From TrEMBL:
GO terms for molecular function: polysaccharide binding; ubiquitin protein ligase activity; zinc ion binding. This is RING-type E3 ubiquitin transferase. Pfam families: GUB_WAK_bind, zf-RING_2. The chain crosses the membrane at residues 209-234. It catalyses: S-ubiquitinyl-[E2 ubiquitin-conjugating enzyme]-L-cysteine + [acceptor protein]-L-lysine = [E2 ubiquitin-conjugating enzyme]-L-cysteine + N(6)-ubiquitinyl-[acceptor protein]-L-lysine. Its EC number is 2.3.2.27. Residues 290-332 form the RING-type domain. One of its GO terms (cellular component) is membrane. It is a single-pass membrane protein. Keywords: Membrane, Metal-binding, Signal, Transferase, Transmembrane, Transmembrane helix, Ubl conjugation pathway, Zinc, Zinc-finger. It is found in: Membrane. Residues 1-19 form the signal peptide. Pathway: Protein modification; protein ubiquitination.
Amino acid sequence: MDNLLLLSVSFLLFSSFYAKNDCHEVSICGNNSFEIRYPFGLESPQNQHCTYNPSFNLKCNNQGKAILNLPGAGYFYVRDINYLKQQIQLYDPYDCLPKRLIKFQLPSSSVFKPVYYRDYIFLTCSTDTLNPYFSVIGCMSNSTISTLASSYMGIVSSEIMSFYSCSVTGTVSLPVSWSSKEEGVFSSELNNDLVLTWHETDSTEAKKIFRIVALSLVIPALMCSLVLTCYICYKQSQEAAALPSTSVGGAAVVPRPEMISGLDDSTIESYAKVVLGESRRIPGPNHGICPICLAEYHPKETVRCIPECEHCFHAECIDEWLKIKGTCPVCRSNPSPVHLNFS
Ligand SMILES: *[C@@H]1O[C@H](CO)[C@@H](O)[C@H](O)[C@H]1NC(C)=O
Ligand SMILES: *[C@@H]1O[C@H](CO)[C@@H](O)[C@H](O)[C@H]1NC(C)=O
């Protein structure tokens, strides 16, 4: 009992100690609609005590833009963060994402990963002869040269090349957020935002699991021990209150130890045991829960009933109880061994 309490308390302290190390502050940068919260953190003087993973560190510039620095790939503005899907949506501060994507490279240790990679052929074509309906990459084009990108590999051997005086500048695997969506011959999607997913590092994941396990154990354990402690205290105070009334002629009758001592195993075993069926019906003045552990009865559980008062309990609960206290926990009737032999 005391051990259980001690264990619960130390568990609680331990888990709250771990919880304190993470930052659970929620910030907003500028006019952005998304929150900046765990695992992300906003670099600011009041968040100095937070020890989140520095990869998730965001800055807020004086124009109210949230900035993510991706080591190896540079700075990006953050458009949105989806905490449920663990996705962050980024755009280029200079408004030319395709140029950034061509050189985009993340170290394998990065916590961020592109959703998909897709191969694109980059072409430069003469601007004045080019079909105006082709999607060109505006920020990589001027009045003489236009840049286009295609995920259609057959483009290299097509008529287009000679007809518009195009040349191939290279084939690059680009990080994209769509898998095989239908695109035109020339992609107009590369100007869309870059979407990356994140995976929490093992230690934060382990901490999270640890916290969940700790909390799911500690709260029921604490409640159980609290209920039991209260019950035992209540019982003891009741017994203590009852004692003076047994005094006869001014001489207090010292209660003999046997009065509060428990029953022996063979006596307990002689009480009727019932295995509950699907209906979980229990005979006598009983309700759906075991008064000792306060848990509901389930089919196939074994209950034991005290023959005197017909109060029933989980067999394992009442057995332990009767070994310590020889009375019914509900009505405190004292089962008489004589009666038992005939029950
Ligand atoms: C934020 O929004 C308000 C009103 O919509 C606007 O007046 C203000 O300039 C915006 N601030 C920034 C930093 O964009
Ligand atoms: C257009 O861009 C190409 C290569 O980027 C460059 O060589 C050329 O001078 C540019 N032309 C104009 C008119 O800016």
